[in-house]
């Protein structure tokens, strides 16, 4: 048998059908593979799953001992008792988590940690024989006319006091079966966002350049970083100009303040009284096609707060739903005719010591049954216009749409 070096192993892995996850690290990327377990999570088994992640008495892999995967939007709603009427649905899984046995760290050098003996033998990494293809044109599920009609309905709900802000989802679709690893690296070259990830399994893939951290829990400390506010990037803009725009724009500030207040309320449900603080207020982050308005909120968890309590309190993330959360979720679910699937769910990990990290799944592409689907949403408040919000959705989708033009 041929034993591969680290670089050869990684290249063969990327060219094979073997399931894997790539996750953006603070420096470089982490690749997870050799999954000993994969679990489809539902409302009925999530308690058992959360408990299962915490039962390890001996950490076998010093770099990671736990599960990594995603909670879809529908499951997040199920967990807090929010119903979703019948919608157009491709039956994509509500949630899947994986237990890796091999982790590859892509930094200046490539290092591999595995609990498996002889994991680098070539016999397990056969080059895929799949027929990859893709279109570079997308169909949009909502024309501007259709979007405007829904926009008016949601605007009426705001005037009636049933919600203050609401995020209307729009989808771009085409026919494709992607070489997902290749497309992920294309995306990373132009928009390597802090919460970027790829899941490649045998019958689906998810590619995301998400910028938003929903929650990070370390011991008894937790933080969230809500994003609310978007400014288009051009050759004439700069980080400083974006900051001036956000500071002076009444609509963006109203939207941001509402989301920050809601996220403070969510995190306060699971934290000790008096410990929830805004540690960094209204700063600007720069991405390929846009700038975002961001705030960081921290807290100290109650001793009684379990990981499931935290998930229920924080998911789905308020910054991609609207405010107030439950009323707005009910409005969205009654008027949106397409299932959100993973969009505005969360991807991340739960470790055996109870630590967790989850993002919000936005700027994401799902490839399933030869269909690619990109979902985006912008916030509607009283000062919004349909034309501006429709255009903002395109700006948010652009970094993913552009990788089909290479």
Structural overview:
The protein has about 400 residues and is an alpha+beta fold. It contains 10 helices and 20 strands. It has a 20-stranded antiparallel β-sheet that branches. The chain has one domain: Anthranilate synthase (4-Layer Sandwich), CATH 3.60.120. Strand 11 and strand 12 form a beta hairpin. It starts with 5 loop residues before the first helix and ends with a helix. It is globular and about 65 Å long.
The total count of strands amounts to 20
Specify the CATH architecture: 4-Layer Sandwich
Rg: 21 Å
Largest sheet: 20 strands, antiparallel
Q: Into how many domains do the coordinates divide? A: 1
Per DSSP, what share of the residues sits in E-state strands of 2 or more residues?
A: 25-35%
Average pLDDT, all residues: 92
Q: Secondary-structure element sequence?
A: HEEHEHEEEEHEHEEEEEHHEEHEHEEEEH
What's the CATH topology name? Anthranilate synthase
- Give the C-level CATH assignment: Alpha Beta
